[in-house]
């Protein structure tokens, strides 16, 4: 249980860091992407306004305007006239016969006129004023417009180079984020033992207290029981003696359950092995047959033979007995108790299903049924009896076997399911 809590603490901490990294690094990458997109639009605007030419002087209005404090001043920084030389672009004009004339191709590397013509026709065939075409490793964003003389022109800008900063930051963010998570997880694994040490010490002291107190309480209970029996032998039998015997039996059962629950939490004390689940369920259901009959309950049992699981024999028997006793206790008068042991669809797990008619349980909160000392009747005056630790014990034992236990309500029935791995 302590190890499970430790790994849960580590998982939650790592997940929290992951969320922080996603928000911070994601925001940074997103801002860089938007900034690159705005930069592409501004450069294209300058190229269109200057009919395919870009210089430090004519770029000043688009890049030097500091009125937009967020986009231009804070994110883009101050305007540097020499920054315009980093862009790769070309411009063409198209006559009425669709012949392409190259106007400016001095700012591209090894791009032949035939390839420029092919890219131009590809852009015009899209029938959009703006779009993207690709050649080799580069993507060019284009914009179709009319010059001051009314001639159709197309300017192309290499967006791959502009977006390189974004992709570099994206890759670095992923690598650094994964690295940070790994380092954080390693450090957390190394120090988590010390972090939860006070909780571990408190837990062990609680378990030790329960065990010691349980053993100490057994002695006065044994004396009370012996005195009660002596009174009966002396002929002083009365309803008070019977009541005392019943309360002693209840307290003894409670103490034994508390000690067993404390030991069950320490999974190291349970040695797992291959056990015959079918035989255990068969024996337990047989023992409860007379009790069910005495309570006028319909008792149906269906057990598939030869199902072996990884568990501990006596603890697994205790789980079955707890569920059967719970079904008997909370079953409606003249109701039905069903017990089924089957294999899962893929024959990897054994499924024990214990159900009983319980019409009043339709609106109950089943999320706390396996909590220690949980009682739906908070006044603890329930006529059904019980101490609220049986199901908690069943859950901890099941988890010690690396299995699962669940509860649900369907129709008029409350259903408990135990899922354990089948032993090969």
Strand order of the largest sheet: 2-1-5-4-3
What's the helix-strand series?
HHHEEHEEEHHHEHHEEHEEHEE
Count of spatially separate domains: 3
Average pLDDT over all residues: 83
Give the distance, in angstroms, between the N- and C-terminal Cα atoms: 26 Å
Instruction: Give the helix tally.
Output: 11
Relative helix content: 40-55%
Helix and strand composition category: alpha+beta
Instruction: From the alpha carbons, calculate the radius of gyration and give it in angstroms.
Output: 39 Å
Strand portion: 15-25%
What is the overall silhouette? elongated
State the total count of DSSP E strands. Answer: 12
The largest sheet, given as strand count, sense and whether it forms a barrel, is: 5 strands, antiparallel
Low-confidence stretches at least 5 residues in length (pLDDT < 50)?
Answer: 378-387
GO cellular component, one term: plasma membrane
Keywords: Kinase, Membrane, Phosphoprotein, Transferase, Transmembrane, Transmembrane helix, Two-component regulatory system
Catalytic activity: ATP + protein L-histidine = ADP + protein N-phospho-L-histidine
EC number: 2.7.13.3
List the helices and strands and how they pair.
Elements: H1 2-49, H2 60-63, H3 69-75, E1 89-94, E2 100-104, H4 113-125, E3 130-135, E4 138-146, E5 152-158, H5 159-195, H6 197-233, H7 239-265, E6 273-276, H8 277-287, H9 289-294, E7 298-303, E8 308-311, H10 313-330, E9 336-343, E10 349-357, H11 390-400, E11 404-410, E12 413-421
Parallel strand pairs: 7-9
Antiparallel strand pairs: 1-2, 1-5, 3-4, 4-5, 6-8, 9-10, 10-12, 11-12
Helix pairs in contact: 1-5, 6-7, 7-11, 8-10, 10-11
């Amino acid at each position: 249980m302590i190890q499970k809590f430790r790994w849960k603490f580590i998982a939650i901490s790592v997940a929290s860091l992951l969320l922080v990294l996603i928000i911070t690094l994601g925001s940074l990458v997103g801002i860089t992407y938007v900034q690159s997109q705005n930069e592409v639009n501004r450069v294209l605007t300058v190229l269109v306004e200057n009919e395919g030419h870009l210089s430090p002087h004519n770029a000043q209005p688009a890049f030097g305007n500091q009125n937009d404090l967020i986009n231009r001043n804070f994110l883009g920084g101050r305007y540097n006239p020499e920054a315009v030389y980093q862009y790769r672009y070309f411009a063409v004009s198209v006559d009425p016969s669709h012949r392409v004339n190259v106007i400016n191709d001095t700012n591209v590397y090894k791009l032949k006129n035939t390839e420029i013509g092919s890219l131009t026709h590809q852009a015009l065939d899209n029938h959009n004023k703006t779009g993207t075409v690709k050649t080799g490793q580069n993507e060019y964003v284009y914009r179709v417009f009319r010059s001051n003389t009314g001639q159709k022109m197309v300017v192309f800008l290499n967006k791959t180079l502009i977006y390189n900063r974004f992709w570099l930051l994206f890759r670095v963010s992923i690598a650094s984020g994964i690295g940070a998570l790994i380092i954080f997880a390693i450090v957390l694994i190394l120090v988590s033992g010390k972090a939860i040490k006070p909780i571990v010490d408190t837990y062990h002291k609680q378990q030790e207290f329960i065990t010691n107190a349980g053993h100490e309480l057994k002695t006065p209970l044994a004396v009370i029981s012996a005195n009660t029996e002596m009174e009966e032998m002396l002929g002083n039998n009365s309803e008070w003696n019977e009541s005392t015997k019943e309360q002693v039996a209840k307290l003894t059962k409670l103490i034994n359950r508390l000690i067993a629950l404390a030991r069950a939490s320490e999974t190291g004390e349970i040695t797992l092995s291959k056990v015959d689940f079918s035989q255990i369920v068969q024996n337990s259901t047989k023992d409860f047959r007379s009790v069910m009959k005495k309570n006028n309950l319909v008792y149906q049992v269906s057990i598939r033979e030869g199902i072996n699981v990884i568990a501990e024999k006596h603890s697994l028997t205790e789980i079955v007995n707890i569920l059967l006793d719970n079904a008997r206790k909370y079953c409606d008068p003249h109701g039905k108790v069903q017990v089924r042991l089957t294999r899962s669809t893929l024959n990897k797990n054994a499924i024990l299903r214990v159900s009983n008619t319980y019409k009043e349980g339709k609106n109950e909160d089943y999320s706390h049924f396996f909590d220690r000392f949980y009682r739906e009747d908070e006044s603890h005056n329930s006529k059904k009896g019980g101490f609220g630790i049986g199901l908690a014990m069943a859950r901890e034992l099941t988890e010690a076997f690396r299995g699962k236990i669940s509860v649900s309500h369907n129709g008029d029935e409350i259903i408990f399911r135990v899922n354990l791995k089948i032993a090969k």
